[in-house]
Design brief:
Strand content: under 5%
Largest sheet: none
Number of helices: 8
Structural class: mainly alpha
Distance between the termini: 45 Å
Number of strands: 0
Number of domains: 1
Helix content: 55-70%
């Protein structure tokens, strides 16, 4: 059930009116978001270990959510938002793991023998739960009270993509066209991701 949102001094009005209660936390949104989280999480781990950097998956997942859910009978903008939230959360957790666990392996003399797949999974689970719990008190301070002050450019761009997919027509055509152009340019260019020369190798966790 949608909760009433107070109108701020900036005159902001949410896209979904507080008087509406469209479907949001549905089974298909959770399942598809989890699948996207696994897919983009695995790609984030590979890219982070291979190149030492990652890219945000919020906007690509938002576009894919619109496409996939439309073929599964349609969806609301809130369902699409749930899919991109779950998917990008999986990518963020994977990024947190790939940039911390290797450092601990380097720092501890018995790192390769100490860390196992189960321990890495439990660390990722604990980090995800901690981040979710911390977002409860921080949401009002950083999002509700600071709305209109903090720009949040990526979140704003992702919201515009979701709105364009909801409205359809020319806006949606521009979003999918931009995704196609970006994907084709990446596929046509030679890969510049090369492993670091002289990097130390460690045995895989048990």
């Amino acid at each position: 059930m949608a909760t009433p949102v107070q109108k701020h001094a900036t005159g902001f009005q949410p896209y979904v009116s507080p008087n509406q209660s469209p479907p949001e936390f549905t089974l298909k949104a959770v399942v598809i978001g989890s699948l996207f989280g696994l897919l983009f999480g695995a790609s984030t781990v590979y890219l982070g270990l291979r190149a030492g950097l990652t890219v945000s998956a919020s906007i690509p997942i938002a576009v894919l959510a619109i496409s996939v859910l439309k073929r599964l009978g349609g969806s609301t903008i809130l369902e699409n938002n749930i899919v991109q939230t779950i998917g990008s959360a999986g990518e963020s957790v994977a990024g947190g793991v790939v940039f911390t666990i290797p450092a601990l392996i380097f720092l501890t003399p018995y790192g390769p023998a100490y860390f196992s797949y189960f321990q890495i999974a439990m660390l990722a689970f604990a980090g995800g739960i901690l981040g979710t719990l911390m977002m409860v008190p921080l949401r009002r301070a950083l999002i509700v009270k600071e709305h209109g002050t903090l720009p949040y450019p990526e979140g704003t761009a992702c919201a515009d993509v979701l709105v364009a997919g909801e409205r359809g027509g020319r806006l949606a055509t521009m979003v999918f066209g931009g995704l196609g152009i970006g994907g084709s340019s990446i596929c046509s260019s030679p890969s510049s991701i090369t492993p670091v020369q002289g990097a130390r190798s460690f045995p895989m966790p048990r």
